[in-house]
Design a protein that fits this description.
The protein contains 9 helices and 11 strands. The chain is of the alpha/beta class and about 300 residues long. It is elongated and about 75 Å long.
Length: about 300
């Protein structure tokens, strides 16, 4: 039986987002209208596709079967559209990037502004969240991560290593005892992550220094940077963020220096999507250039 592709597109959005409100934002429909469209599809199919639970809309067995088929159709359509390459290699359409907030705040704004200027028909969305993105649910077209995932049908590309140092504001250092060794840190106020909200082991910087108490904490690295800038204490700062934090300088730079890496993650089904691949290449090169530029200024 043939069905309206638009109804299947709406079904996919609800299945991936699990709530009408979140799915409605993606497809630009209010939740009530979206709910009616899903109910209409269920009536057409004579099947219950969702069961409402405390966590949102859960797929039934019939819903799971339709989800697999609709996803296959969605992939086929994405690939077909990708084969139509715009003239002069100009990118168009919408691309959503998921990123940890350090990259989203200090790297992606200027990079994406440049890409948008070069490709006027391109709509770039940056989703900054302190967690791992689920590309299988199409939360984003691609994501930047601080560690390479080991599971899932994903394509993983290492972008670049980056450096981090302990840092503090000149105003804080002027009013507190000197820091000559790591032992001195025990008498200073520490700024860092909220321990139970660290979503990736690579972000657990302070544990390696034996610093277990964090009097000033946030799940956002940009908030941590602003706390440090305001003289709140001492914390780990990305070298590429230092140019955005005037008055903040590295502390114990020769004794404490960390290195991490950014990875670009894409869904394996998008491997043949020329448009996304072209954008990924441009984004990767721009991130490497911007990291070099900012770290040279740190």
């Amino acid at each position: 039986m043939a069905h309206n592709w638009d109804d299947l597109r709406l079904f996919l959005a609800v299945a991936r987002e699990r709530t009408l409100s979140s799915a409605g934002k993606l497809v630009r429909l209010d939740p009530a209208t979206l709910g009616r469209r899903v109910a209409r599809l269920e009536k057409q199919l004579d099947a219950v596709l969702f069961v409402k639970s405390p966590q949102g809309y859960a797929l039934t067995e019939a819903g799971e079967q339709l989800f697999r088929r609709a996803e296959a159709a969605d992939r086929a359509m994405r690939l077909a559209m990708a084969e139509v390459v715009p003239p002069s290699d100009m990118l168009t359409g919408q691309i959503r990037i998921g990123a940890p907030d350090g990259a989203a705040n200090f790297l992606l704004p200027q990079i994406c502004a440049g890409l948008a200027a070069d490709h006027p028909g391109l709509d770039i969305q940056i989703v900054a969240l302190p967690r791992v993105f689920n590309l299988s649910r199409r939360e984003a077209d691609m994501a930047i991560a601080v560690s390479a995932p080991e599971a899932g049908r994903l394509v993983v590309q290492k972008l670049s290593a980056y450096r981090l140092h302990l840092a503090a504001a000149e105003s804080y250092l002027a009013g507190h005892p000197p820091i000559r060794s790591t032992d001195d840190l025990k008498s200073h106020r520490i700024v860092g992550y909220i321990a139970d909200m660290i979503f990736d082991r690579e972000l657990d910087y302070l544990a390696d220094l034996g610093l277990t108490r964090v009097p000033l904490a946030s799940n956002s690295v940009s908030v941590q940077g602003q706390i440090i800038r305001q003289g709140g204490g001492v914390g780990i700062v990305h070298d590429f963020a230092l140019p955005f934090l005037p008055g903040v300088r590295p502390v114990l730079a020769h004794d404490i220096h960390l290195e991490r890496a950014f990875y670009l993650i894409r869904h394996a089904d998008d491997r043949g999507n020329q448009r996304l691949s072209q954008f990924a290449d441009l984004l990767s090169a721009a991130i490497r250039r911007e990291l070099r530029r900012l770290e040279a200024k740190a």
